[in-house]
Amino acid sequence: MGFPRRQPGLWRLLLLTGPLVCPLPCMSLELIPYTPRITAWDLEGKVTATTFSLEQPRCVLDGLAGVASTIWLVVAFSNASRDFQNPQTRAEIPAFPRLWTEGHYMTLPLSLDQLPCQDPAGGGGDVPLLRVGNDPGCLADLLQPPYCNSPLPSPGPYRVKFLLMDARGSPQAETRWSDPITLHQGKSPASIDMWPGRRSGAMIIITAVLSSLAGLLLLAFLAASTARFSSLWWPEEAPEQLRIGSFMGKCYVTHHIPPSEAPTLPVGCEPGLDPLPSLSP
């Protein structure tokens, strides 16, 4: 995907009517032998679905930039970068909405002191990079300048270059265009294949083992729950000595046995020895 190319009819008409005239600032523009590229730092998210991170052009424009000069980043669709014409005044600088109509825009204006050759002493050690598309709310904020750094609308591919402009907005120097930069693109949920037949053998074995373990744990839980609550459903029979109306003892002597029959009683059951408590008042 990229910017739809315009029909070349207009260019043919210009060639027929006369040669193209390039203004003086265009003829004296200096080309800097530097190619912008994605940062080499090992970072997560260097390229996302709406952003990409460039290395800062440090020590690249030092000999050319003045105190009031501004370094701009030009972002264009890869197939529209050849049609980009450097603006000659500040009023001609294309803002982000021009990406939809012209296929390019300019953003991230920086001064030379924002791109030092060396990190300042006692700095926080931040990674020196430029993140393109890192301001999602800039178009909605009316107080923001029109050259905001809005998220990129499509995977691209894109090309970028740095353009040095003086205080009047006239171009002074430019770098080469970068190589095409393609953003990540998420997959549609409908395109994800969920058919188990395409899974690897190891994945199928792991899934089967985990399913078996889950089944065993479920059976163990049910068995433990049944054993725990069975005593509530079917209480155990009480021991015989605890039943109501019954007791156990070594002997029982009734008081109407005559003394002549006492020798026939078991030991401990002599007359007058009653192991049971008396019920008489």
Protein described:
The chain is an alpha+beta fold and 281 residues long. The chain contains four helices and seven strands. The protein has helices at residues 9-17, 24-27, 98-101, 201-233; strands spanning 30-32, 52-55, 70-77, 104-110, 129-132, 158-165, 171-175. The strands form two sheets. It has a five-stranded mixed sheet. The radius of gyration is 46 Å and the shape is elongated. Mean pLDDT is 76; it is low at 7-26.
Give the overall average pLDDT: 76
Choose one word for the global shape.
elongated
Count of helices?
Answer: 4
- Helix vs. strand class: alpha+beta
Radius of gyration of CA atoms, rounded to a whole number: 46 Å
Spans of 5+ residues with little confidence (pLDDT < 50)? 7-26
Helical residue percent band: 10-25%
Summarize the helix and strand pattern as letters.
HHEEEHEEEEH
Strand order of the largest sheet: 1-7-6-3-4
> What's the number of extended β-strand segments?
7
Task: Characterize the biggest β-sheet.
Answer: 5 strands, mixed
Q: How far apart are the termini?
A: 112 Å
- Our estimate of the beta-strand percent is 5-15%
Topology of this structure?
Layout: H1 9-17, H2 24-27, E1 30-32, E2 52-55, E3 70-77, H3 98-101, E4 104-110, E5 129-132, E6 158-165, E7 171-175, H4 201-233
Parallel strand pairs: 1-7
Antiparallel strand pairs: 2-5, 3-4, 3-6, 6-7
Keywords:
single chain, 281 residues, alpha+beta, five-stranded mixed sheet, two-stranded antiparallel ribbon, 7 strands, 14% strand
